[in-house]
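Morning run. Coffee first, then this:
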Amino acid sequence: MIPYYISKIKELNGMHLLHRYACASIPEDESDSILLGTFNSCEEALPAAQKIYPTSTGCPYCCRSCSK
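And here it is:
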């Protein structure tokens, strides 16, 4: 199981990015992201992220299969 985080910072396209633990593009300041919990995949974590930010999508680097 892997920890997943959702960024509080909106991207230019209005989306909030879902990140896996230790992703190089996760916000450096811990207060800029929310720990969602541990999941087996981004496909499992994305619905949890979308409950917080409906405009969530996967990070193109660490959650490519969930990225729009």
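Residues 36 and 48 are 7 Å apart (CA to CA). Good start to the day.
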